[in-house]
Amino acid sequence: MDERIILRNTDDPLNASIAGYMAHGGYKALEQAVGELTPRDIIDEIKSSGLRGRGGAGFPTGMKWQFASLDPKFPKYLVCNADEGEPGTFKDRPILEHNPHLLIEGMIISAYALQSTRGYIYLRGEYPHAKRVLERAIEEALASGYLGNDILSKHFRFNLTVHSGAGAYICGEETALLDSLEGRRGLPRLKPPFPVNSGLWGKPTIVNNVETFANIPYIVSQGAKAYASIGVKDCPGPKLFSVSGRVNKPGVYELPMGISLREIIYTHCGGIKGGGSLKGVIPGGISTPIIAPENIDCPMDFVHLPKYGSMLGSGAVMVFDDTVCIVRVYERAMKFFEHESCGKCTPCREGTAWMRAILGRIERGDASERDLETLQDVAENVTGKTFCPLGDGAAGVLLAAMKTYREEFEYHIKNKRCKVQ
Amino acid sequence: MPQVTTERLKILRGKIYELMELYPSYQAALLPSFFVAEEIFGFISPEAIGEISNVTGVPAAEIRGVASFYAMYKTKPMGRHIIQLCTNVSCMIEGAYDLVEYLKEKYGLTPGGTTPDGRFSLVIMECIGACGTAPAMILDTDSYENLTKDRLDTLLESYK
Ligand SMILES: Cc1cc2nc3c(=O)[nH]c(=O)nc-3n(C[C@H](O)[C@H](O)[C@H](O)COP(=O)(O)O)c2cc1C
Ligand code: SF4
Q1: A44, A143, A186, A324 — which has fewest CB within 10 A?
Q2: Is the C-beta atom of A81 inside 6 A of ligand 1?
Q3: Is B21 on the interface with A (CB under 8 A)?
């Protein structure tokens, strides 16, 4: 018996088809929801489960749903954020490719609870296989009467479309995503108004991450209490961690919220590759500050990581050993931020380019002592001055790395070469 | 590169009308229309932009502005096969830049460039969500992971 909730039965290749999914008990939660519960009941259940969004910010899902449900405007749109662009993150991919009906069932239940009739899955363009799987799954669900204009003969209608992104990281930010879905350049919008009141085409819009939706069927069928018994207080449930870098067994792991980083690396991922020593870990994707080896007993959840100066983000754990040059990592990371900056605000558009240029000099061994000060100065001046969290994150993660690994930056400047090679 | 013919433009037009049904605004059909244009013409050709503009009512200048925002759209003619190689952090520490070097040596391919015979184009990607099986690439529409020089070589041989 597969104990997992989100990745349940993903080892069974048939699970991606509706017949296989139903053979494992799939769509029972939807039938139960539509047959026995009112939309209000479901929103209350999600609220008391304590579920927090898995896209990065950890916002309470029940609260978001309530805001949207209280807005009288119609229609309401339901959007699944499947942009998964945060470097290091590949945790939504197994759901999309091997458990598509779990996502779809979660979205249909959510649509029923929110009285939404139209949904979109904004899927990153880099997942062509997931697109084929999802489109087939949607067709199967339509043919079985779980989607369409008269779902389960209850006069409840919901239609779902996969909308492909095209390689812009910023479109994972929910308001940029909405602009992109409307057929524009993906630039973040000013908030408020929040999408729950004014989202797609000015209508109430609920945006949730893939993994968030994948939790819904379990909460509805097993109840908020059972759900809240997993994980930690204030941050319950199972969490997907995508682990990459210098570990023996990288991959996606479903583990309870609050598990320690040490357990993830040493118990589940088989420790450091090649017997090297641990140099640092990025706990939640490249936009979250790096954690030094002495802090790896930190619990991995939205509540505890900030106490260690970092964030859970997308749960993308990137492990570096002593063969990895931290300067090179952050030069590459800054190249990413520069490339992905949408250009809307100056501190981010210009700041990421300058930080990347200085980091490049340090990495190549062309930098002077003053460059380090300038770098620090630029980063500090970007912090807190950007329109959306992308620019802020770019500066923040660099400052954290320069603090913990300052000596490595200085070594590059003094010796005109890397300490690692 | 497939030629621009009235027949092909008609196919594009039909698809755009189908796509417009899926959204409450015509403009929302732009992004999916670009993919269709690429499928038909190999890239988002000026004629395709004209057609998309005619059908959706969105000015051509705005269409070009939207298309150029997104890294994956082919706004100029490309090779027959597109190597989309990730060099972001997890792929980098597993040797992605060695592969970039190798493509340059063996095929004369540089990032953003195309081989003289028009067989391959190389695009450097930001994270493609294959970090646990790095280094990785998407070749046309298929993902390949745990790449080595040898494996890359064998794979490319099968794309003529
Ligand atoms: C720069 C940036 C990129 C983001 N990328 C993603 C993403 O790829 N996937 C995602 O689900 N959320 C992403 N988010 C978070 C979304 O803005 C939003 O909080 C989330 O989709 C809400 O869903 P949730 O409540 O279920 O987490 C990103 C945020 C920022 C600022
Ligand atoms: S911080 Fe960067 S990505 Fe965000 S709005 Fe400003 S320029 Fe765009």
Answers
A1: A143
A2: yes
A3: no
Does the model's ipTM exceed the 0.90 cut?
yes
A180 touches chain B (CB under 8 A): yes
pLDDT tens digits, A160-216: 999 999 999 999 999 999 999 999 999 999 999 999 999 999 999 999 999 999 999
What tokens were used for A335?
């190249």
Say how far apart CA A21 and CA A244 lie, in whole Å: 29
Domains of chain A, start order: 13-229 (3.40.50.11540), 235-321 (3.10.20.600), 326-415 (1.20.1440.230)
The residue whose C-alpha atom lies closest to atom 6 belonging to ligand 2 is A345
Mean pLDDT of B35-42: 96
Q: For chain A, say whether B17 makes contact (Cβ under 8 Å).
A: no
Across residues A8-30, what is the average pLDDT?
97
State whether residue B86 is helix, strand or coil. strand
Task: From B69, B93, B111, give the residue that closes a domain.
Answer: B69
| Residue B13 counted as domain residue | yes
Give the separation between CA B16 and CA B12, rounded to whole angstroms.
Answer: 6
User: Ligand 1 in contact with A390 (CB < 6 A)?
Assistant: yes
- CATH number of the domain to which B108 belongs: 3.40.30.10
Domain that holds residue B142: 81-157
Record: contact A242-B130, CB cut-off 8 A: no
